[in-house]
Amino acid sequence: MIEVKDLTKNFGDFCAVNHIFFSVPKGTIFGFLGPNGAGKTTTIKMLTTTLKPTSGTMSVDGHNPVTQQHAVRRSFGIVFQDPSLDDELTAYENMELHGVLYGVPSLKRREGIERLLKFVELWDRQGHFVKHFSGGMKRRLEIARALLHEPKILFLDEPTLGLDPQTRNHIWSYIKNLRDRQNVTVFFTTHYMEEADRVADKLAVIDHGKIVAEGSPQSLKERAKTQSLEDAFIALTGHAIRDEESSASDRMRMTRKIWRGR
Amino acid sequence: MSAVYILWLRQLKRYFRSRSRMIGSLGQPLMFLLALGFGFGPMYQKAGGGSYLQFLAPGIIAMGILFSAVFSGMEIIWDRQFGFLKETLVAPVSRFKIILGRILGGATVALIQGILVLAICFIVGFRVENLMLIPVALCFMFLIAVLCAAVGTAIASVLEDMQGFQLIMNFLIMPLFFFSNALFPLEGLPKVLRFVIHLNPLSYGIDGLRGSLTHGFHFGLGFDFVILNIVAVILVGVGSYLFSLIQI
């Protein structure tokens, strides 16, 4: 379903993704692990057509994300690392907007919105403004939204970041359920190793832009001769703490706080 | 086309839900109208220009549209940093449709804002000379709005965050307003100022608006209309080109 060959992305003289290869078969839950700044999000951006690679080839649902953007965009749903809902709209309106953008016909759209909002247990909140939602509710809404156009692939960039264990469990059970029922391919990243251990069929660990290990959670643990995936992860990527430079987004978040209620 | 429509609708919904924004952005035009309109009125009258309020009102309406449309266009910056833009950029919709929906949405919001300013002008004593020409005036208001929303989106596509906001405000928006025929007639101005005002596309919008509401045209209805259309098409083109370069 996803095929990546010799993929590279340079930002100036910094190499974010360095000649990586991997493949994700249809119906697989694929975990893409790595420390901060390892190249996970950059890879997702390239697969989802928002960033052009420096070199290498990719195939998503049989299409090329560089030259066949529309076909690729139709094939996947995505939950970004940062929120991407419109706070000033209601849950239903966010779903509706997504459905129209993806060209879902109106009858199917209405059914789909109802089915998915019930699925993530937000149907009774459909008319509420998203700005009043908690982090977990927003995540669930984003997952529902990403599924509205019936994608074959679901990209989840740290979908459970900052959520409590209850909500995390909840979200993963949705996702497993989805794969089992509809054979959706799931590509996710996370920093919670026990999650990755529990839900993933296949993992790849990326560090400094290179894939350092690939295989089932069990095989990674065996390879690193450790009990838990967390230990295996540390053994593979080392103990050093990674720093990411603050981006324009971080600065903007500060400004936004000051500007609230403009 | 439905993608354009839903993005247009989104901006209208956001506008109508934010009363503080609606009322807040009326403050500035109102202040200009009252202070300048009544402050300079007697002097203008003495100089033989007639009622200054009658002259000024179309300029203030254009100003309301200018600010409102540019800011609506610049909302892309917020959307970009707070995520919603990503949602539209990974959708199977061409960038041109996205930008068109946004520009039309921003322009419609600005047009409504302009109509509100027009209503305020009526309340303080402004009178339209030929009611038959109101549709023409609305048409000019919309053209100004499209043009300015396109400018806003073009800027927002280039700026990474709101740090550059003051710069845009002081070196683009304010000059566009002050170096136009919004506040004073062109007759008897220094040559350089006249030249600058002739280069400012907003001048043709204000002339069209003023012409259809009160005084008659300085440049001519047809000329204003053609210039505005040409500039609007160019700016929408530039805006969508710059928008298409955005990588997230």
Number of helices of chain A: 10
Looking at this structure, what is the CATH superfamily of chain A? Answer: P-loop containing nucleotide triphosphate hydrolases
Q: Topology as H/E string of chain A?
A: EEEHEHEHHHEHEHEEHHH
| Overall spatial form of chain B | globular
**Cα radius of gyration of chain B in angstroms:** 18 Å
Please report the distance between the alpha carbons of the first and last residues of chain A. 45 Å
What number of structural domains do the residues of chain A give? 1
Which structural category do the helix and sheet elements of chain B fall into?
A: mainly alpha
Low-confidence stretches of chain A: none
- Tally of extended strands of chain B? 0
Shape of chain A: globular
Helix content of chain B: over 70%
The total count of strands of chain A amounts to 9
Structural overview:
The complex is a heterodimer of chains A (262) and B (248). Chain A has a single domain (2-241), classed as Rossmann fold, CATH 3.40.50. In chain A, 41% of the residues lie in helices and 22% in strands. Chain A has ten helices and nine strands. In chain A, strands 5-6-7-3-8-9 form a six-stranded mixed β-sheet, with helices on both faces. A three-stranded antiparallel β-sheet of chain A has the order 2-1-4, covered by helices on one side. In chain A, a hairpin with a 2-residue loop joins strand 8 and strand 9 (210-215). Chain A is globular. Chain B is mainly α. Chain B has one domain (2-244). In chain B, helix 2 runs antiparallel to helix 4, helix 6 packs across helix 7 and helix 6 (95-123) crosses helix 11. Chain B is globular, with a radius of gyration of 18 Å. The relative contact order of chain B is 0.15. Chains A and B meet through helix 2, helix 3 and helix 10 of A and helix 1, helix 2 and helix 5 of B.
